[in-house]
Write a structure and sequence with these properties.
Blueprint lengths: L2 E3 L2 E6 L7 H7 L5 E6 L4 H9 L25 E4 L6 H7 L5 E4 L11 E3 L4 E3 L7
Parallel strand pairs: 4-5
Antiparallel strand pairs: 1-2, 2-3, 6-7
Length: 130
Amino acid sequence: MISETTGFSIYEETDAGTGKDTSRMLLAGARRVFFAKVTDNDLLPAFKAVLKHIPENAPIVCESPALRYFVEPGIFVIMSSYNSYNKKNISKLQALPHVMFNLEEIQSMEEIPVHFDGVRWTYKPLADGR
């Protein structure tokens, strides 16, 4: 555990073999991965606490739909599936500016045209409009 306070605890993932999303991020090349156990009211303070452990201007991938209500990202990507377990929350988020991909239509992560150019996240739609 790297931080704990009333309302949240923050952990750094170090095991790439657990099969959890945080482990998959390490396997995909992330240098550091953090996991926060947080109450709804403490989401923003928890995110600010995580930011203290990340170098300024480092690219960040954040897997938290709820955080989008508090933070304006460089690019907000919604990855859904036909069997998405939480379509209600996704429909609320669709009203916010975003790029959306359906996982069943993507053959590999390289098909997703989102890249970090060294300064910011960029998005260039594919020829088919995705």
